[in-house]
Amino acid sequence: MDDMTKLSELKVDQKNLYREEVYTDLKFATIRQLTPVLADGQKDDRRPTLFFGQTQMMTPAGSLPLQFEIEAKNLKQAMEKFPEAVEGAVAEFVEAAKEAQRQSESRIVVPGAAPANKIMMP
Questions:
Q1: Which of 11, 42, 54, 77 has its CA 20 to 30 A from that of 104?
Q2: What's the burial of 81, exposed, middle or buried (CB within 10 Å: 0-12/13-18/19+)?
Q3: Mean pLDDT computed over 18-43
Q4: Domains contained in the chain, number
Q5: What's the mean pLDDT when you consider all of the chain?
Q6: How confident is residue 114, by pLDDT bands cut at 50, 70 and 90?
Q7: Which domain holds residue 76?
């Protein structure tokens, strides 16, 4: 019952509202534009519009969704910066995957031992 009470106390942060618009070329690029708005729905010119890109990267394991921020002042600029932002997101993904692989290769798990008993290699 405590969980239900907590859920009923949730409130919308009326000082941090955004209107979302989605643009796509129906090929590979999707750009989400988040326009700041006031509680009455009018544009809030005091805060910047945010842009996020979405696309998919093909891997041997299948399609992998990528989402990334695009630093832009308007939709046209977001479209122009989309390829550069994709490259940055792919580079970050590859580096994170390499780091995860390095970490998994540096662990030796003793059969039958509890997970806390992993031996870390230098």
A1: 54
A2: middle
A3: 97
A4: 1
A5: 88
A6: low
A7: 2-120
